[in-house]
């Protein structure tokens, strides 16, 4: 796997800087555990149409549901937050205008950890916060082609791939009881900051379908203008916007 060391170091330094510049106001430790549901919306090259997926410019996915578990451990004003998210995205449409059918499915499992800075509002049961995280993202999925030019009709599994990412979030916790709160959050996630690569799943076999059998967010090293088999010319950025609602229980 080829790592973008400069981007990854910048992401680590940014999250560490946020953590180091926040000073908690008191020493009482608290723990909250919970989970909930959400919606993941693809952004940047992760979104788009099935036509763009077929021509290799974008991944062509639309919004889908997510579920997650969450833990927060820390002091008043500063939490260390951990989260595990599972999202399911899909899209269906033509491969070219008016012809060919493409059905795309993508699953993402994300493990996240990072600091949260809480802003207290006196006399109100509402606590806004901002945060940042480092993430390990695991991608898997499959694509079905039917009547598509230059690709045999079938359902193909996409090889699993792991990428390192970074995210930034804002939210609010609403107290609904002595040990219970509702956590509403929105985050923007850069999901392949490091680890971009091109994988030839069937080396030595020159065919168009190989371009769809892995995440392939780096350019095809054999790309040539006008080549129907090697057509992905640029690296592709995988971003997402995640909206979540969680129930947290204080311990």
The number of helices is 2
Give the CATH topology. Porin
What does the largest sheet look like? Answer: 8 strands, antiparallel, barrel
What would you call the shape? elongated
Look at the structure and give the CATH class. Mainly Beta
Please give the oligomerization state of what you see.
single chain
Helix content: under 10%
Low-confidence stretches: 18-27
CA gyration radius, whole angstroms: 21 Å
Order of the strands making up the biggest sheet:
1-2-3-4-5-6-7-8
**What's the SSE pattern?**
HEHEEEEEEE
Can you give a write-up of this model?
The chain has 251 residues and is mainly beta. It has a single domain (5-21, 28-250), classed as Porin, CATH 2.40.160. 9% of the residues lie in helices and 55% in strands. It is built from two helices and eight strands, in the order αβαβββββββ. The protein has helices at residues 5-20, 50-55, and strands at residues 30-44, 64-75, 78-96, 99-118, 126-146, 154-177, 180-194, 238-250. It has an eight-stranded antiparallel β-barrel.
Quick tags:
mainly beta, Porin, 2 helices, 55% strand, elongated
Strands, helices and their partners?
Blueprint lengths: L4 H16 L9 E15 L5 H6 L8 E12 L2 E19 L2 E20 L7 E21 L7 E24 L2 E15 L43 E13 L1
Antiparallel strand pairs: 1-2, 1-8, 2-3, 3-4, 4-5, 5-6, 6-7, 7-8
Question: Care to give the gist of this entry?
Answer:
The chain is mostly beta strands and about 250 residues long.
């Amino acid at each position: 796997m080829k790592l973008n060391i400069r981007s990854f170091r910048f992401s680590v330094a940014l999250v560490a800087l946020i953590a180091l510049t926040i000073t908690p106001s008191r020493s009482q430790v608290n723990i909250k555990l919970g989970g909930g549901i959400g919606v993941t919306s693809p952004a940047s090259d992760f979104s788009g149409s099935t036509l763009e997926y077929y021509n290799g410019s974008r991944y062509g996915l639309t919004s889908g549901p997510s579920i997650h578990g969450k833990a927060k451990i820390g002091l008043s004003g500063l939490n260390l937050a951990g989260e595990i998210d599972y999202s399911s995205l899909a899209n269906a449409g033509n491969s070219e205008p008016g012809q060919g059918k493409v059905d795309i499915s993508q699953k993402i499992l994300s493990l996240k950890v990072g600091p949260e800075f809480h802003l207290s509002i006196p006399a109100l049961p509402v606590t806004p916060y901002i945060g940042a995280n480092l993430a390990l993202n695991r991608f898997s999925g499959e694509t079905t082609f039917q009547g598509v030019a230059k690709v045999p009709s079938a359902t193909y599994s996409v090889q699993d791939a792991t990428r390192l990412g970074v995210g930034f979030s804002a939210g609010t916790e609403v107290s609904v009881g002595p040990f219970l709160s509702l956590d509403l959050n929105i985050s923007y996630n850069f999901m392949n900051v490091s680890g971009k690569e091109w994988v030839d799943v069937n080396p030595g076999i020159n065919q168009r379908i190989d371009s769809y059998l892995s995440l392939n967010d780096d350019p095809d090293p054999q790309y040539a203008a006008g080549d129907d088999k090697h057509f992905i010319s640029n690296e592709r950025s995988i971003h997402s916007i995640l909206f979540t609602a969680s129930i947290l229980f204080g311990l």
